[in-house]
Amino acid sequence: MFRKRNGDINWKNIILILVALICLVVGIVLLLIDPIKNMKRQKITDDMMESIVENSQSTFVVKSSGNEVSGEEFEYYFGEEEIEGSTADYKTIVAELPEEVVLTALGTIKIPSIGVDIPLWDDATIVSLRYGAGRLKGTADPGQEGNMTVLGHRMRAKGKLFHALGDVKIGDTIEISGIDGKNYTYIVDKIYEAVEPSDLDKYIDIDDGTGKQITLVTCTPLGVATHRLLVVGHLSE
What we know:
The radius of gyration is 23 Å and the shape is elongated. It is built from four helices and nine strands; from the N terminus they run αβαααββββββββ. The protein is 25% helix and 29% strand. An eight-stranded mixed β-barrel has the order 2-3-4-5-8-9-7-6. By secondary structure, it is an alpha+beta fold. It has one domain (11-235): Sortase (Sortase, Chain: A, Beta Barrel).
């Protein structure tokens, strides 16, 4: 039997230690990716909100890549694409996006009972929903007769976008502050807790005969996204 002489290097142990360190570093990086993305996206959103509120700025140019919402590829319900029955998948839609996208603000949407106060965009696309809620094209404008349908992500992080929409109660208010300075308050009077995505078109007609209505739409259950949560309100006049 040969014994290791004093001073000999045990390369096997060194390699195992290096592999363990690499795994540790990779694990830490993976854990930090989403928080870093969320911080960056939140900073951009906060800056947009400030410009909308203080300067009445309505248009913003953002990159179409980067700042993705975690789980976007399976939680996003494709806005107009899904409503219209398109078979285009997430990867196809993303691949066809231009390098930069112009976001147009209708104003802001505020739900005091759950601490929501975010930009309201004049579209509901993959990019716009990263930075606020979006009105589905073809549905009513704020304060207009008919149904204004607003989509938003059910974020896993507390306090972000429509994370807490499931906590909204009948009688709560949804406040829209338009970029033109006009304000609209809707009173929540209906909540649909689990709507099949294929049935969404039954809830978003521009004129459903019930007056000036708003319908908020997000994914449910949280982190699973098999169904849609709908919160409906009518304009308080």
